[in-house]
Amino acid sequence: LCLAEDLADLKQRLGRMLVALTTDGKPITAEALGVTGAMTALLRDAIHPNLVQTMEGTPALVHGGPFANIAHGCNSVLATRLALKLGDICLTEAGFATDLGAEKFFDIKCRQAGLTPDAAMIVATARALKYHGGVPVPELDRENVAALTAGLDNLEAHVEAVRQFKVPVLIGLNRYPSDTEREYAAVRERCQRLGVEVYVADVFGRGGAGGEELARGLQRLLATERSGFQPLYALDDPITVKLDTIARRIYGADGVEYPKRVERQIVQAEALGYGRIPICVAKTQRSLSDDPTLLNRPRGFTITVNELRISAGAGFLVAITGDITTMPGLPRRPNAERVDVTPEGVITGLF
To answer: Per the confidence metrics, is the pTM higher than 0.85?
Structure first.
């Protein structure tokens, strides 16, 4: 649904979903089972973007929430097109970091929808940089410029990843109450060396006013730099070449390893005609590698693909790496537990 251009396109995508294979290896699709119409009927209204209001009364479009670690991590193409039509500037989020949401936004969503992003904003925090520099979670509220400086290698990797796509980039540094000016100075110094602007944002604490400096910085970037956007790989590249390109140029890996079973799955996917579609890597969000314990900017590692799945409806191949599970998780107490309706019909617990 999130990649569908309209209802007719959604119906086609539902119809080409690969359900199974015959005993002689031929594909069985949802269309062959005669259920495409019924599925389209269920999703007829779901395809329309949701117009919502922020807490400051401004409009926003919320539509689709595929996780970037197990799916392509972007909102719907329809919502993005609507935002581009209704506003001067469209801001859209790609989940997690550049190795997941951004790479998939560029290589899957933008490529398929014909979108050319004018700029990219990397969101960072001093806390996360200290964590990548080796500080345990209970100690992240303490100033530690040395650890933060070490963790800046991770931020540098993300800046380099965005630049692989020839898109102008800036950094938004989300403020936490425990942040210090010495920590901000260390971030600014590294960013200056990288040739990228960084702006501290306090939208959580001050609302829209806390993001004005960042917004003006984005406007300046849009006015002074032009995007030369290009995807990372060609669709005609073999599956293994696409995976190797992502692993080396975005993750910083030395290469990709495939068990024999996965090698057979790759051969099968190409034989079925799915060799010329994008790759969607399912990978941990906690590391640039496929090992969540390898923090900062790991080097000297390889990515292991444990399974290759065909998502024919979405139009991409899913490469399952490491120990990632594709069942989304929830917090110990999901927000749904706090939502209720009073006898008078008043909804409570939304905020």
So the answer is: yes
Contacts of 277 (CB under 8 A, 6+ apart): 235, 315, 316, 317
Q: What is the pLDDT of residue 329?
A: 74
Sign, CA torsion 219/221/226/229: negative
CATH class belonging to 118-228: alpha beta
In 3D space, the residue among 215, 213, 189, 211 whose CA is nearest the CA of residue 202 turns out to be: 211
> What 3-state DSSP class applies to 83?
helix
Q: CA 305 to CA 316: how far, in whole Å?
A: 16
Q: Nearest CA to 292 among 330, 314, 259, 325?
A: 325
- CATH 3.40.50.300 correct for 239-321: no
**Averaged pLDDT for residues 167-173:** 98
Please tell me the distance from the alpha carbon of residue 58 to that of residue 52, in angstroms, as a whole number. Answer: 8
